[in-house]
Design a protein that fits this description.
- This is Phosphodiester glycosidase family protein.
- It comes from Paenibacillus lacisoli.
- With 355 residues, the protein is an alpha+beta fold.
- It has two domains: 84 residues; 240 residues, no CATH class.
- It is 35% helix and 25% strand.
- It is built from six helices and 20 strands.
- An eight-stranded antiparallel β-sheet has the order 1-2-3-16-15-17-13-14, covered by helices on one side.
- The longest helix has 69 residues.
- The chain is elongated and about 125 Å long.
- About 3% of the residues have low confidence.
């Protein structure tokens, strides 16, 4: 639209330049009437009359030309204004048509989730919170649209390797509007370390570790897309330009299809509090956090149930994050879920969201 406006301005100047130039020429070419200062000189009255009439005629023509020029300028200005309004209307119509598929797709998503009972909206992010209660478990779904990739980050407990903190503390310390727990961890020497490959600000915290057993990486690329899966060499992960990411197990969906869940993770534990994350075709994110009163397999959701839930909601890729007492969902300064430990568990990595 800026380029079209410049083109219209050039058209306006080109249209009016000839008329303005003509007026200037008429004014410059007229020679002033000169009378000889000599007392002996004599100019006949007929010649003076003729000269006066000639000057008067030229002034009349200049006046008419000026009126015509003013009228042309006015007409050109009106044409410019109408053209600008038309182009603006066309631009708005095209913009609306361009966003229509996105709106329709989003309506299909929300129709399956229900009505959001809480919403956060800014120029960087939109978050909608839904309740899930299919009958066998209770939980929450948080749909996230990242308008700016920097609206999602990963925080390290206390910003120090080996340190852990609750998701609420991480949210408050970084000034985030929402947060969930991220990858798994291993305890040692009185410290709590992120499990396997962990990326912060584009750098590997403890180096790259080839995927082993059922572990998988999940994070965000520099372009704001959810990335993840098994990686057996660093170059294959580097190609995705990870900004941050953590590791846990297992992958639930890949390219819109269910992936086999290892038998071990189907029964150990069978049911549990869970935190899973996935993405839609339009790169919106979906986080599901399920409540449970213990980690002994008698409450919460199974991985198959969440896999089917994400699949039925149209999610393309989905990954299981750390669960049990680690499952945390923070929004607008409060704990949304009911932690099975009775309080939030300190963990080493958190995914945070910013307004």
């Amino acid at each position: 639209m800026k380029l079209q406006a410049k083109q219209m301005n050039r058209l306006f100047m080109l249209a009016t330049a000839p008329f303005i130039g003509l007026i200037l020429c008429l004014l410059l070419i007229q020679q002033p009437l000169k009378l000889n200062d000599s007392a002996a000189s004599y100019v006949p009255s007929e010649e003076v009359t003729a000269l006066t009439h000639n000057v008067s005629s030229q002034l009349d023509r200049a006046e008419e030309m000026a009126k015509y020029t003013i009228s042309s300028i006015r007409h050109t200005g009106e044409l410019y204004q109408r053209t600008t309004q038309t182009m603006s209307a066309i631009y708005q119509n095209v913009s609306q048509q361009a966003t229509r598929p996105e709106i329709i797709y989003n309506r299909r998503i929300t129709a399956k989730l229900g009505y959001p009972y809480e919403r956060v909206d800014s120029s960087r992010i939109t978050i909608e919170l839904y309740k899930l209660n299919p009958g066998v478990y209770q939980g929450y779904a948080m749909k996230i649209k990242l308008k700016d990739p920097s609206a999602m980050k990963m925080a390290l407990g206390g910003d120090t390797l080996g340190t852990s903190e609750t998701t609420m503390k991480a949210v408050l310390r970084h000034g985030a509007v929402a947060g969930i727990n991220a990858g798994g961890f291993a305890d040692g020497g009185g410290k709590r370390y992120p499990l396997s490959t962990t990326v912060m600000n584009g750098h590997y915290l403890t180096g790259f570790q080839s995927s082993f057993k059922d572990l998988s990486f999940v994070g965000l690329s520099s372009s704001g897309k959810l990335i993840g899966g098994k990686f057996f060499n660093q170059s294959s992960l580097d190609q995705l330009n990870p900004t941050f990411g953590a590791t846990f197990v297992p992958v639930l969906l890949k390219d819109g299809q269910r992936t086999p869940i290892p038998y071990k993770w189907q029964i150990s534990p069978k049911r549990a509090p869970r935190t899973v994350i996935g993405n839609y075709k339009d790169d919106q994110l979906l986080v599901i956090v399920v409540d449970g009163y213990n980690e002994r397999g008698s409450s919460g959701a199974t991985l198959q149930e969440l896999q089917n839930k994400m699949f039925n909601l149209g999610v393309q890729d989905a990954y299981n994050l750390d669960g049990g007492g680690s499952s945390s969902l923070i929004l607008n300064g409060r704990v949304v879920n009911k932690p099975s430990d009775g309080q939030l568990r300190p963990v080493p990595t958190h995914f945070l969201f910013f307004k």
